[in-house]
Every structure is written in structure tokens, then in C-alpha cells.
Amino acid sequence: MSPAGCSHVNGFKVDNWKQNLRVIYQCFVWSGSVETRKRKAKSCICHLCGAHLNRLHSCLHCVFFGCFSKKHIHEHAKNKRHNLAIDLLYGGIYCFVCQDYIYDKDMEQIAKEEQRKAWKLQEFSKTSGIGEKYSMWEPTKRELELLRHNPKRRKITANCTIGLRGLINLGNTCFMNCIVQALTHTPLLRDFFLSDRHKCEMQSNSCLVCEMSQLFQEFYSGHRSPHIPFRLLHLVWTHARHLAGYEQQDAHEFLIAALDVLHRHCKGDDNGKKANNPNHCSCIIDQIFTGGLQSDVTCQVCHGVSTTIDPFWDISLDLPGSSTPFWPLSPGSDGSVVNGDSHPSGATTLTDCLRRFTRPEHLGSSAKIKCSGCHSYQESTKQLTMKRLPIVACFHLKVSPSGIFIIIKYIYNPLLIDVFLLKYKESRMNGQYQQPVDSLNNDNKYSLFAVVNHQGTLESGHYTTFIRQHKDQWFKCDDAIITKASIKDVLDSEGYLLFYHKQFLEYE
Q: Which of 131, 190, 303, 385 is the most exposed place for a label (fewest CB within 10 A)?
């Protein structure tokens, strides 16, 4: 949108447009009086599907209500060439030519004036007792009885420990306990299970999602004694037989297996009806953890590009000392500024690891592919990019050949990172990899909220977890023992899995 604003509003600003806009705000958006609220409830439905919700919009050029989510208002705008519509919930004006919500000084002034009038009418209704919109809640007799039986009120304070609970080790099950701690402290997953959103279509004693729901209830019940996850272990053995037994298992492998089983058991939920198709699923697991990884294979002869997009739940990153060659890629790795911060010479950042993950790779003569353009086998290059970013990004730090896990503090500034979208394409000039200025966006910032650690070697060792509680407090979870930790403790630990949460969530 240019600084001058949207030019398409001029087609609406004719005759008595101000009065017409005021009537729309009064009757269909703010609805200050009892009569207008009743009228809005009866009349504001989609003219195509009859729905009240789905982000209902009203055409500003004629009397037409349509769903924004199902694009019924889009169809009307295209057929009638009516470019402007108003959101009946928030009052924002959308231009279908600009494909964005627009700002117009005159329209904004009318919206504010009508909103203030509506607030005054609602306040009058409250004081007069007529048509009260926000009525005072008063408990019923049944609710009073329940409150008497449960008089204790739990308040969240700065030192509150609700949600912190240890897990008993059932015999080399620290690999499971550390992942459970990370999942139970994933904010959106916690909100889903604590709001009882799961609708089971299986036998409850065999559904892993039902068990996770019960586990969240146990964690946030306020009990301090360690929980014994024997039912969870039994279900994991049942649905992921390769993890059965009392041998030490890999935490990363358990995470992927757990997400896969949870994904398959979410079929009964409202957003998981298509969970049997991993590429078209909106269950809670895919909403939070699934991203889209794009692979572009370019023919070296005709430069034709073959593109595939695959879902992913985690990204495995090479680190210094891993089996593949690694070198710092950050601009200014000699001590200059990166992302607004300076870091020591030679320090490796997570951005370095991501750059290396997304850089073009020459496949060589031993891996020729049949090009659809040349119709012959040719050498090619392959490049991975992020097509869609997940809400929770899990990074698996590969272990060095000697079995030594990387110390997190050697990965510079791990508490806040930027993740590249599809726009990011590396270009090499004079031996330096450069990044386009506009490739990073504030919406792509992630913050660390859980770290799974490993002490020991690949064959044997012990897993622990650092989790971030409210107010940026960190705690170490060592099976049944929960202790307070500092950021220094987190950075000094031997990281194996890093869990990052997106700081800004898009409105859908």
C-alpha cells in the first residue's frame, strides 16, 4: 500500500457515502442499541451458505453479506466488480483490488465516531438495566454448591510452580520423559488439551491423544509429587513397536514417533478430519509442528527446475565437528554485527547452520537425474528452502563422529533466531555468502522455550530437559527432580534438541 492510501475508495465516495457508511456501522458493526443488536443477529448471515461466522463481511456497494474464510464475499466482489467490503466484527475495510485491509482518514474518522456512540449506548443500557450487553455473572445454586466443595482458588504468581511436575523413570525412559516435558510446556498444545478439545473416535484406553490429555491434566493439577507415566509408556510400546523394551532409546526418534502417533489419533477432532492425509491435515499437531520444506532440483544443462514440497516436523542441522564439512557463513563472522548483535570471531550461529542447510548442493556425476526438459540424465544442483514455517520449530543438532554433543553456548545467541522463508536464496560474491536485505521479517522471529540435553555417548547416557516457564523462568527437569535454573545453565548444557516458538502468530 502506498503512503497515499488506496485509490479505489474514490468509487465509493459519491453522493451520500458518509451517511451510508454511518448506517452500516450503526446497524451491522458496532450495534450500540438493543434493536440494532437484534437486527444484526437476524440479518447478518452469509447470503450464500447462511453462516453467521467465518469472518462475515458486508459489501459497501450493495446489501450483500458473505463469508471471508470461504471466499463467498470474494466471489461477489469479482462478479459485481464491487471492490470494497467491511469486516462486521472489527470494522476494518477490505479492498479486493489491493487484496488488503486499507486505511482512509475520512472512513477511519467515521468508524471512531460511531464506535464511541455505540459504547455510550451500551453504557447507558448497563446503568438503566435495559438490554444489558455484558451482564454480571451470578452463580446458580448448582455452581454455588460446586464452589463450596472447591473453595481453593489457584492464582498464577511470579513464583508459581503450576505445570512443573517430575516424571518417574521406569527403566531407561529418560528419553521419553524429556520429550514429554517439552510437549507439556508448548503453549498452544497446552491450551488445546486443557480446553478439552479432543474428540476421540477410538477406544480411550488405546488413544495416545486421550492419554496426553490426561497427562496435561495431571501436570497442571497443582500436585507436586512425581507422576508415573506407565500408561503413556504402554501406549508408546503399542503404537511404536520399534521403541518397545527397556533399552535406552533416542529422544529425537521418540519425538518423531510420538508426533506421528498423535497426528494419526487426532482424526476425531474438528480440525483433524483429514488427518489420514499428511499433506492436507489441520489437526493440532500439524497446526503447531508442521512446516513445508521445498526442494528445488536444477538441471545444469537446460536450467529447468523440478520442485517438490514435503512436510517436516523437525530440521537436522550440521554443526562444527560433524561428519560433513562445515564453515561459518554469517556475514561479519570476523567479529562484526549480525542481526543487530556482535559476536566473537569464529563463533557459529544458528543462522549459520540454517544458511548451510539451505545452500545449493551440487549432486555430482554419480547422482544424475532424468531432466523433464532435456529428457536425459544430467548433473544437477539441489537447494532446500522453507516454504512454510511451523509455529514450533524443532532443531536436531547432529552429533559429532566422536559421540560428543555440542555445548549450546558455542552456538551464538540461541535464545532468539530468525528463520528463512522461501524468499531466501543465497548468492556468492567474492567467496562471501550474502543475504538479501528484505529476506528476514519480524514475523519470522523465534524464541527458545525448551532444550533437550544429553550427557554421555551415543550408546549410553542420560537425557534431561530445560523448560521455560512464565516470566522467562527456566527449570531443569531430570526425571523426577525439578530444579530452578539460570540462562547460563541452559547455555552451558549439552544441547541435542532445541525447541523454538514463533513470537508472532498470523491471523487466519
A: 303
